[in-house]
Amino acid sequence: MNKPLGVLVGIVVIAGALNTAGAWYTGTKLEGVLQTSIQEANKELASQLQGTPTHGSVELVSLDRHLYSSTAHYRVKVEDDSARPDTEPVELLFVADIEHGPLPWSRLKTFKWMPVMATTTYALEKTPFTEKWFAAAKDQSPLQGQVTLSYNRSVEGRMEFLPLEVALDENSSLSFSGMTMEGTADADGQNLKGKGYMDHFKLHAVSLNKPQLLIELNGLTVASDLDKSEFGFFLGQNFLGLSESRITFGIRQSLLKVNNFEYTGSTSANGKLLSGRLDYKVGDVSLNNNPVGSAQLVLSASSLDIPAMQSMLQIYQTKFQPKADGALPASELTPAEQVQLQTSLDTLLAAKPQMAVEKLAVKTPHGESEFNLAMALAQPAALDQPPVEITKQLLTSLVAKLQLSKPMIADLAGVQAQLEGQTDPQTLAQVGTMTSDMVGNIAVGTGLAKVEGNNIVASLDYAAGQVDFNGQKMSLEDFITQMTQRFNAPIQ
Asked: Which of 40, 102, 198, 392 is the most exposed, having the fewest neighbouring CB atoms within 10 Å of its CB?
């Protein structure tokens, strides 16, 4: 054996010995790490599901440990308190093949050389509860994935829902392309990042004496980047995008298409004050291949006192949250809960929260409408004041603007007429014109808006007890009196 080859063989032998020692060490520590992770997962589940009728838990059923690998069995259990008393909890069983670190073979063969504690490949097991799911996936495990646990206890993983083809009954069927999801989490689960993609989902439903329904969803993308706050919930960014959705429905089998739907949500905290923004966009809507329009809604809020909101939410969950049958709880607030609610409300208002409809816009082929609203609140000095004085102190400012396009109203009225079976173009145009004129007449007749060209416009600007309503300045008292008279008077 020449010298270079001898050195190489020596390195391989030493590396193998070190890996064996590392695998043995990992194996001795593995069960403790898994139990700790499961305890933390159950704690997090309980926290996130608090106040809901749903409860979940994860259990390590068994662990068969070997030198280089181990096999674990898990049980995931989900219960719903609002379900019927005879309803059995949902139980899912998983089997996991765990490769011990520091250098699992599945990572080495993909040129991932960073030492890790373990790499786990898991799969859902067949049970009486999941056997139909297995059949739809051609007898493969329909849910499987891989998780890598680093020595600092950070986690990265991949989850895959396999494609499904299933006949729901003689006439109904479901087709699912499958979905993949990837994510990472730090050691304490304080930062979570994830993304997922689904190519298509198709549901064809046919029931007795009802028109068939066809739902198609194509190109679903989800993504999150979240950090756990000191208050126990996650803040950050969420995104959901759907390239195309198609719904065929009704006796006439109308086809509704919605393209390029996007939802973006973001939340952040400055100390104990929460801010958030929600943005919904619909890129293109059509009915029976005729264009309908597009839309956008942007909502925002800031300076929301988090402990105060959590306190109020706790009362709502225990006293006011509807039951499974929709009925409200019969119990009333105790004196202590009344004090808690009032104190929380005072604290919330003392932070001077602000809320806004930054944009509500609808655009059709012949017109575009937009609405904006922003308001700021504050804590009244006392509640034993006249209602107008409380309003002045509670509502520190409000600005609202509306521009309603009459051609847009006509377009949407035509769409409604099409859904009701009207197809004649001249009739559709007449319906649209009559509807837009009627809306304009009502707005002018009530004094709530005015017509400028092809637009119905209205504005309201309030601050410091003074109101500017459609260009007319008045006190808050006069505005309230005027509105009362207008709504009680017949429309001219």
From this structure: 40
